[in-house]
Structure formats: structure tokens, C-alpha cells
Design a protein that fits this description.
This protein is an alpha+beta fold and 169 residues long. Helix content is 41%, strand content 27%. It has helices at 11-20, 70-77, 93-102, 106-117, 120-133, 138-147, 160-164, and strands at 5-9, 30-33, 37-46, 49-61, 64-67, 79-83, 86-90. The N and C termini lie far apart (48 Å). InterPro entries: NT_sf.
Length: 169
């Protein structure tokens, strides 16, 4: 069972979303920053579960930086499920893969990559867009491509130096 239910939003929506579910709130939205993470967090009790509203989420690890861009990237690619009579968007696997690689969570990224490899073509458009908006170290880029079984010209995650044909100065 999940420890909590994460709801991701761009920072511009955090206060409005908090207002809609304020009666379930355990705390108020607050900026949370560590060496690895930056976000605006708030917590809610929902039918025995803890729900976490995560706004403006950014991950930094070993030279890589990934920002969760819900409106611009992820919502358009989200698979929708019905919970009762409510349509709920699920976080795309492409996000989950990059996010969990940067968090060094093999228990998650290995299963995610295996699921993605069964129909990689479905995930490639979002992965390409993520690769254009985040900054991955060469090690992370090669690792993610390797998890997906991509190499050579098929690679999705190329760093800017590689694309420009040399070193950045």
C-alpha cells in the first residue's frame, strides 16, 4: 500500500487547490528545501490516507536537475482513471522514471522501465519533451537510456554538449 497519495501541481495552483480541500488540511502550504529537493508542501487526511500536495517540485542530484512541469508537460500525457464519478489524471511513467532515477530508487525505476519497455513508443514523445526541459548529467542520461534499452542513435537523453558536438565553454 502507498504511504501517501501525492498530488503534483505547478506553484501557481497550490493556493487554489489548498483552498478547495482546506477542511482536510493538516498544515498550510510551506516551501520545503533540501540539497536534493525543492517544493511547496502541504498535507491532508483523506479517508484514512495522507495526501501530500506538492507544488513546484524540483529534484537536483549529481549534476542533474529536473523540474516537474505539470501544466506544460505532464497533464497532457496523463492517463485518466475514474475514481467513483471523478476523472483523475495519473502521473506519466516518463516522469516517474526520471524522478526515481535521480532519487536513486532502483526498487521503483527498474519496474517502471520494464513497464515502459513493453510499449516504448507510447512513452517516447513525453520522454523527448522531458529531455528538452531538464538537465541530466551524462551519467544519468546514459543510465536512463540504458534502462529503456536505447543506445547509439536511438538515445533519447543527450546532453547539450553532445548535441553541439563538443564541450561547453
Amino acid at each position: 500500500m502507498p504511504r501517501d497519495v501525492d498530488v503534483y501541481a505547478d506553484d501557481v495552483h497550490v493556493n487554489a487547490l489548498h483552498g478547495l480541500i482546506k477542511d482536510l488540511a493538516v498544515d498550510e502550504p510551506e516551501v520545503s528545501e533540501t540539497d536534493t529537493y525543492h517544493s511547496t508542501l502541504s498535507h491532508y487526511k483523506l479517508d484514512g490516507y495522507v495526501m501530500e500536495l506538492v507544488g513546484s517540485f524540483k529534484v537536483r542530484a549529481m549534476g542533474s536537475r529536473y523540474e516537474v512541469l505539470v501544466d506544460k508537460l505532464l497533464l497532457k500525457e496523463a492517463r485518466m482513471v475514474m475514481i467513483g464519478d471523478v476523472r483523475v489524471p495519473l502521473m506519466p511513467l516518463g516522469h516517474e522514471l526520471v524522478f526515481n532515477v535521480l532519487r536513486e530508487r532502483p526498487d521503483r525505476y527498474e519496474a517502471i522501465a520494464a513497464a515502459m519497455r513493453t510499449d516504448l513508443g507510447e512513452h517516447v514523445p513525453l520522454l523527448k519533451r522531458i529531455s528538452e526541459t531538464c538537465r541530466l548529467s551524462e551519467a544519468h542520461a546514459a543510465f536512463i537510456d540504458g534502462l529503456l534499452g536505447l543506445n547509439g542513435e536511438d538515445r533519447l537523453f543527450r546532453n547539450k554538449r553532445e548535441e553541439q558536438g563538443g564541450d561547453e565553454t
